[in-house]
Give the backbone structure.
Amino acid sequence: MRKRDPRSWRFLGPRETVSTRTGSEAKGGLADGVIPAVDGGPGDWLRSRLLASPKGATLVGSVIPVGFEAYARVFHPAQRTPHSGEMAVSVPWGAVVKWSGSILHPEMQWEAISQSRAITTNEQPWDEDPEVGQMPTETRSALVDVLAPQTSTPDLSWVCFWEGFAGIREFLPSVPRVQVPHRSYVLVHATVKRVGDGPLLVGPPLRDLGPNLWWPDDRSWCVASEIDFRWTYVGGSAECIQAVLRHERLEALPANPAQRADLLGDSINTPGGRR
């Protein structure tokens, strides 16, 4: 029997996976346990809860829906490879702030804190900048640990991928779209645990893509990784966000939908900004 969610949005049953489809979708695209939605209805709620940004600025609330009790900004770590052939290690923004003489604060921007403000003999602590528009796999896994207990519907969560990424239109041409101001996403679903358990898409160039928007069916929280940002926003209950802020594998600070999310939002560390 085909399953339905409580609000009657239709989605494919367990036997109707991507492997049963034809054409380019059957060649790849969605990994096991990731199932295309039948329509974009589960994403309709987003449009009414995203703020319009003033000219020349981008507000946090234009990226992640407003209306949650609390918010966090989760920073994507930089990377450093100690020696050739060794595994890269994560470098938190806090370490970069310490090196550059910048100030750690909720609206800091990578381009501002990664410039040294004093002559120093200390070696730059990273050699690869944080990922843009993509939550690192280890960050996603840590978020699942926090978020899974914070929803009553862990077996159904909705995931959006920006359709502008290379390969999305080719491999997922008929997967339903979710339209929000300035962005169009493809919509799939998976369990919350599955989202943190390995790649969600298969085949180059899709395999490294993670969610740009992600929420459980009860909408108890929402995760947003905007395609131009080196961090991810999480909205949820106060308890949920406190758990995000306390998690030892996450570097996060409180956020507010009214804050600026663009480069000029860092008025403390940008040249000429207040210190």
